[in-house]
Protein 1
Amino acid sequence: MSVRLGFIGTGDLGADHVRRCANIMSGATVSALYNRTQSRAEKVARQFAPQARVTATPEELIESPQVDAVVISSASQTHEELVLKAIQAGKYVFCEKPLATTAEGCERILKTESAIGKRLVQVGFMRVYDQGYLNLKSLVDQKAIGPLLMAHAAHRNPTAGPHYTREMLISETLIHDVNTFHWLLGESFTAAQVLYPRSTSKADAALQDPQLVILETESGVLIDVEVFVNCQFGYDVQCAFIGESGEIRLPEPARATVRRNGQNHTPITMGCKERFETAYDRELQAFVDGVTAGKLTGPDSWAGYVASATADACIRAQKSGQREDIRLIPQPGLYQ
Ligand code: ISE
């Protein structure tokens, strides 16, 4: 039997999820779409799923008996309310990151899901489905370079729109790295600090782009992440661990090299949809498979909470210029 999905938010990434559901995935159909600008949902329906119903409100989609599970790719500020409505209606929900814009918002979701007593939420941290990161994780798990000491990472976007704020470098971009290290290391963070190098002239000075974020983990691993959302040259994600007996590096995406005109040239990707295309396919397929099996396996609400609580501390550190402590609530039983 096919899982009937309802899609809330059919912007860039939302429409791409509709496309992968219609054209690539198995075991799922596009049943309903909602977008704040209705004509956009209608256009996406015409393009990928003419049989799907376009609803007038997100509530109508969530409550529809024709929708078994909900995929949320709307603006971040809408996530918490929509996730709560979906799980209260007894529906499984895939929610793009962040799960909520604050740790308190995530806590409300943890409470509600725990009271229901069943995992219903998967958060869209797609990197955990990327083959390069999976290779990295298996080497970390095998302790291939002995105890880990530190990690260096970079998260670069070619450009960010004029709407991008200093906080969004953390809440929208760094949050992926936070989740990635939580998953790779299997531990949480105890403190965060943000340093501001000289700003690029290619962006508004108020943005303070790039930023250098330092995270400390429970076991003392020190992580530095360069977040640079107007780097110009490409969409570039880097990660390397330094251990007692070596280094493990995230592989570059496989691209043919071209030798020509006295140069050896390897293209790099220009956007996240291209860089993580397979990971996005796999994460949504995993969600559908989890719904079919009645057991979700992808990043859970606890992962969403840890990421948001850590991001909140980074935003405090942006403002204070100080090292900020990170204190988490006890992990509810449902997620242990
Ligand atoms: C952006 O905000 C996202 O949400 C994307 O998932 C991420 O890949 C990108 O680098 C972020 O800046």
Protein 2
Amino acid sequence: MNTQNEHPSKPKLVILGTGFATFSMLHYLHLKEFEVCIVSPRNHFLFSPLLPSTTVGTLEFRSIIEPIRALQERAPLKFYQATCTGIDFDTHLVTCEGSFDGETFLLNYNYLVIAVGAVNKTFGIPGVLEHAHFLKELADARAIRQRIIENFERASTPLIPEEERKRLLHFVVVGGGPTGVEFAAELHDFMEEDLQDAFPDLMPEARITIVEASKTLLNTFDQELSEYTMKRFARAKIKVRTGTLVKEVLPHGVRLADGTELSSGIVVWSTGIGPTPLLQSLKSVAKDRGGRLVTDEFFAVDPARRVFAIGDCSTRSGDELPATAQVAQQEGEYLGKHLNRIVRGKTPKNFHYRHMGMLAYVGDRRALADTKRVKGHGFTTWIFWRSVYLTKLVSMKNKILVLFDWFKTALFGRDISRF
Ligand code: NAD
């Protein structure tokens, strides 16, 4: 139980989550004017736009994370590695479950910010949780990287039956949104640039298939860019099965809606995101059809009770902003400044979203840019893609590590050790 303010003169601000929204908010918040307490099962911030690059070793895992405690350099703040399991809006208490021993504790708040992000959507499809890999956290990327290399090593053992070898070397990606496309692109680069030299005999059998329910890949991008990606993938022999729904994930593959089975050595599930268990448990608050918390124009869930929600877990009433990093980042910036104004008794300002556009990597040093100023694809766009992400990384340490990893990969290739 921790229900006392340690500094009674300062309002206690409890923040749930350590994603883009939180990190951005903390950057703008006057930390010294609050007693800040952060609760999250993850003790670091993850620069998720570059996560697919870590699944094959283009980037190292630790190059795209920043410990949340690094912020203690700016001001004292508390962090608890725990999951918030309930909120009592009447008593201003949140219930948390520790990440290590599962102990339950309570925290009081004067202000609460819910920035818990989202979880992978499975649509209740059988076998997803048991047999598929998600791509949302570093642990997912690490498991995928180990599995890819393991499959190649297994496939090269002398007594392996042909059918089993083909299965191990078939990589299936379910969902042709940006996550699925960028992962397939990185995997293809890994095969062409590194695994080709290490396993030349196996390469003719190695295959990637993307299964996408709708008619096209990247359907939130400009149609021309989505067509370009389909053509590039066809040339790279990445099989794209559009208009195809996966109905079940099996221990060794997937079953499609028409009953066909695709045997596979790994299934990566990237069919979008949905509400976390915490959001599902909150009954007395307004939510949209996707289960996100609906807030007022100032991101307040309930202004009288001083509860705010930002990032992937929320949507402003009347807005239809997508659950992306740039939206979370801008909402975090706004709320940090908004809270500063509240404690100083200033009148609130309005939030204006600035859409920067979308970027995606499509393999072989080619990227897409769908922005107001630049709409294009190809090698120059890939340079633009890298420059944008390099500038967006949150710390100088991350920028240097990412730059170093890119040079290392270009010079020496990706590491294919399994440990
Ligand atoms: P998404 O929602 O963008 O795409 C998921 C895809 O899976 C959809 O095209 C859907 O038709 C398909 N799908 C759903 N169920 C299926 C099934 N059973 N079988 C086959 N296909 C199925 O999901 P995402 O790619 O994980 O992205 C999540 C969010 O993050 C989005 O808002 C996205 O814009 C954002 N994001 C953006 C970038 C970028 O801009 N570079 C990168 C990653 C994520």
